[in-house]
């Protein structure tokens, strides 16, 4: 099965990367291919806010790296990998990577200190000497869903798509609610393996705990459409039941890594194909806009491009960072005007790396802006009068759509 999924993913990548309309989705498929080849498993802790995800993560990792407490609410994804000595770095959306001391982490990953992610943090990466991670697992603590802070919920929903195995955290002090049910239904469309952990079992009597666990098991089996689930009673505070959970995860990742990755990759590939098909549909709609409406939107793109080029002339320093920020700004503008994803690779920029001169920066800025306009003209057939070009573009879109649907049907 592994070879079949990998073959389909590589075929999908070839198709998508050959059409400018789907290069964002092609980038996602490339990541799926790399995961399958490298056998990289990501285990994420997901659930509603204030269920104790960060504290449980610390207990699993035998670490106190993640900020916890009564008030802190996680606002950014935190990825933890094995390292011989503790290290931490913040990855920003504009590509900048900044080392930070552990005692400063809450400044970047707590809602109280980084409200609505005003700092533009993409993720925080920690390296800790945890035995749990020694064989190459990536462990992820995520923001919780359902809090007042909308950005946290959006981040959690976005990252659930990246997870291969999930620890879905519930709490004995609160019945399963609709927020958790909706989140679980979405998550099961992407992850290949689930572990259900019921936290705070140290605060209830044994009889009450059994009643709650039986209730959860029955409900979760129905939601997951299965007769059996992996379920654990744990206390992140005392460590009760956590060792059993860890052993189950490590055992499965050792014996069933292929199965977990294949299931996860297949689900993610289907979703990416759906995204590409929606993208092609957006192109159809944009191509069929009245000229008056298209003229207004292309005029807005031209205005943005001229503003960016003028700002580039005035810029002074940090040119690599500025170039990444221009890519993000152009992508957002295309999304705003045409409802389409226009993908750029954002270059990772370690601190202190300054190699680009202003002349090179201005040339690359002009190239980005010019290429964007040319690409939009071409793929949207803006003011295209050559009938052969129009027919060929329409045929190519139809052919690509048919090929992608065929691959998806073969995956089902």
Q: Write down the secondary-structure element order.
A: HHEHEEEHEEHEHEHEHHHHHH
- How many DSSP-defined strands? 9
Mean pLDDT: 88
Shape call? globular
Q: How big a fraction of the residues is strand?
A: 5-15%
Please describe what this structure looks like.
By secondary structure, the protein is α/β, with parallel strands linked by helices. It has 13 helices and 9 strands. The chain has helices at residues 2-17, 23-38, 53-61, 106-109, 150-160, 178-187, 206-224, 242-255, 257-287, 291-314, 319-338, 358-379, 387-411, and strands at 42-47, 78-82, 87-92, 97-99, 121-128, 138-141, 165-171, 193-199, 231-233. A 9-stranded mixed β-sheet has the order 4-3-5-2-6-1-7-8-9, sandwiched between helices. It is globular, with a radius of gyration of 24 Å.
List the helices and strands and how they pair.
Blueprint: H1 2-17, H2 23-38, E1 42-47, H3 53-61, E2 78-82, E3 87-92, E4 97-99, H4 106-109, E5 121-128, E6 138-141, H5 150-160, E7 165-171, H6 178-187, E8 193-199, H7 206-224, E9 231-233, H8 242-255, H9 257-287, H10 291-314, H11 319-338, H12 358-379, H13 387-411
Parallel strand pairs: 1-6, 1-7, 2-5, 7-8, 8-9
Antiparallel strand pairs: 2-6, 3-4, 3-5
Helix pairs in contact: 1-2, 1-9, 1-13, 2-9, 9-13, 10-11, 10-12, 11-12
């Amino acid at each position: 099965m592994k070879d079949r999924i990998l073959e389909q993913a590589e075929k999908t990548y070839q198709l998508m990367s050959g059409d400018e309309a789907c290069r964002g989705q092609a980038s996602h498929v490339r990541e799926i291919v790399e995961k399958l080849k490298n056998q990289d498993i990501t285990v994420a802790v997901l659930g509603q806010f204030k269920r104790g995800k960060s504290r449980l993560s610390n207990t699993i990792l035998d670490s106190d790296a993640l900020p916890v407490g009564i008030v802190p609410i996680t606002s950014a994804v935190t990825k933890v990998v094995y390292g011989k000595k503790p290290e931490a770095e913040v990855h920003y959306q504009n590509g900048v990577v900044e080392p930070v001391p552990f005692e400063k982490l809450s400044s970047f990953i707590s809602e109280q200190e980084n409200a609505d992610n005003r700092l533009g943090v993409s993720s925080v990466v920690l390296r800790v000497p945890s035995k749990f991670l020694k064989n190459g697992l990536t462990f992820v603590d995520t923001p919780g869903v359902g809090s007042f802070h909308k950005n946290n919920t959006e981040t959690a929903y976005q990252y659930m798509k990246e997870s291969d195995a999930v620890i879905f955290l519930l709490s004995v002090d609160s019945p399963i609610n609709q927020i958790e049910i909706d989140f679980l239904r979405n998550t099961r469309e992407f992850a290949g393996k689930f572990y259900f952990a019921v936290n705070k079992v140290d605060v209830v009597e044994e009889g009450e705990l059994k009643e709650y666990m039986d209730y959860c098991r029955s409900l979760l089996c129905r939601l997951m459409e299965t007769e059996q689930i992996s379920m654990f009673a744990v206390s992140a505070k005392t460590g009760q039941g956590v060792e059993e959970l860890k052993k189950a995860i490590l055992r499965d990742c050792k014996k069933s890594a292929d199965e977990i990755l294949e299931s996860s990759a297949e689900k993610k590939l289907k979703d990416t194909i759906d995204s590409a098909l929606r993208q092609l549909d957006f192109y159809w709609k944009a191509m069929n806009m009245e000229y008056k409406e298209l003229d207004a939107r292309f005029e807005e793109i031209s205005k943005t491009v001229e503003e960016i080029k003028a700002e580039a002339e005035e810029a002074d320093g940090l040119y690599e960072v500025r170039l990444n920020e221009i890519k993000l700004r152009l992508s957002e503008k295309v999304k705003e005007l045409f409802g389409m994803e226009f993908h750029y690779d954002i270059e990772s920029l370690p601190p202190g790396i300054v190699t680009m001169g202003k002349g090179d920066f201005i040339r690359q800025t002009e190239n980005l802006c010019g290429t964007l306009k040319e690409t939009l003209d071409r793929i949207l057939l803006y003011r295209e009068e050559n009938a052969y070009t129009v027919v060929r573009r329409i045929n190519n879109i139809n052919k690509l759509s048919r090929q992608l649907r065929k691959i998806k049907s073969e995956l089902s």
